[in-house]
Design brief:
Structural class: alpha/beta
Order of helices and strands: EEEHEEEEHHEHEHEHEEEHEHE
Shape: globular
Number of domains: 2
Number of helices: 8
Strand content: 25-35%
Largest sheet: 7 strands, mixed
Number of strands: 15
CATH class of the largest domain: Alpha Beta
CATH architecture of the largest domain: Alpha-Beta Complex
Length: about 300
């Protein structure tokens, strides 16, 4: 089968289409004929060799989001049939590997049906980012009416955090650049403030004591920590342990822990069907243009996800 990956870690130009031996569904799993896979910032770290690859051999395949059609059902699997359209989370460099593949073996729990009236391409943007957003909100532990600040609100992860938080009755203060103001307002944020060095001051102008939690989707870190109240929760997406600021609880998300979080995937499916969250595709490209997708992602400014198709 064809995969997109690297034989030597490096920049976007290291990506290429490779032919490897086919895979089959084992006990408790299905095989998905992948039709679309989303390109996420985490994929660039796999490609560049920033993650442990000792459990895999070349070609090393990125990708955590896929959507397609089940074409093989393994033993001890109930409730799933050949022909079901599904969206799945994958784990690159471990287990069954990344999502940039023609066929993905997925254990039960790591996938669910694509949302009604949603395209395969749109569905491929939901699992990993959606699960990350849910995990961030679980860590925050906020009740209705409490306040959450979100950096990177115009990015897809930020979109999902804002939309899910609003659905939970949380007051959201989101950042934006001038060109993305309309987008961020459309997400339903209660307050929209400029992104950058003045973020914390702008947040404090709205909530003088500081917000209850901060989801740092844009990796702003030290610059935005002062937006939190004493006892507030800072949630980092890249493993940052914090700067020691007094009175702040520094936490990290680790979406790999959600690999078989079927109930949460179902929550995301229903959230899309009900309009709570809105998948957004920046552009659909053939898998052979993975290098271009990575180059454009790393250049910044993309809204939504590039989606690659076979």
């Amino acid at each position: 089968m064809k995969v997109v990956g690297v034989t030597q870690f490096g920049g976007p130009e290291a990506l290429a289409v490779h032919e490897i031996e086919g895979v089959h569904a084992g006990s408790g799993s299905v095989r998905i004929a992948v039709q679309a896979f989303a390109v996420n910032p985490t994929d660039t770290g796999v490609r560049a060799g920033e993650r442990d690859s000792s459990a895999q051999s070349a070609p090393y395949v990125p990708g955590m989001d896929a959507a397609g059609v089940i074409d093989e059902v393994g033993p001890d699997v109930e409730g799933w049939s050949v022909g079901d359209q599904v969206m799945a989370m994958a784990l690159p460099l471990t287990g069954h590997g990344g999502a940039y593949v023609e066929h993905l073996v997925a254990p039960v729990g790591s996938f669910t049906r694509i949302p009604r009236d949603t395209s395969i391409e749109e569905a491929s943007t939901v699992p990993m980012n959606g699960l990350t957003a849910i995990q961030m909100l679980e860590i925050a532990g906020l009740e209705r009416g409490q306040t959450l600040a979100v950096t990177g609100a115009a990015g897809l992860l930020g979109n999902y955090v804002v939309q899910l938080a609003k659905a939970a009755g949380i007051t959201v203060i989101a950042d934006t650049s001038q060109k993305d103001e309309a987008l961020v307002h459309s997400l339903g944020a209660d307050h929209v403030v400029p992104r950058g060095d003045g973020f914390a001051e702008a947040v404090r102008a709205i909530v003088p004591d500081g917000v209850d939690a901060l989801a740092d989707c844009a990796v702003q870190r030290d610059v935005v920590v002062p937006a939190l109240r004493d006892g507030g929760v800072f949630i980092d997406v890249r493993g940052w342990k914090g700067n020691g600021a007094e009175g702040v609880r520094f936490t990290q998300v680790f979406v790999f822990n959600e690999y078989r979080s079927f109930d949460k995937l179902e929550h995301l499916r229903h959230a899309v069907e009900g309009g709570t969250i809105v998948p957004r595709v920046a552009e659909v490209l053939p898998a052979s243009r993975a290098t271009e997708a990575h180059e454009r992602l790393e250049a910044g400014g993309t809204r939504g996800r590039f989606v690659l198709t076979w």
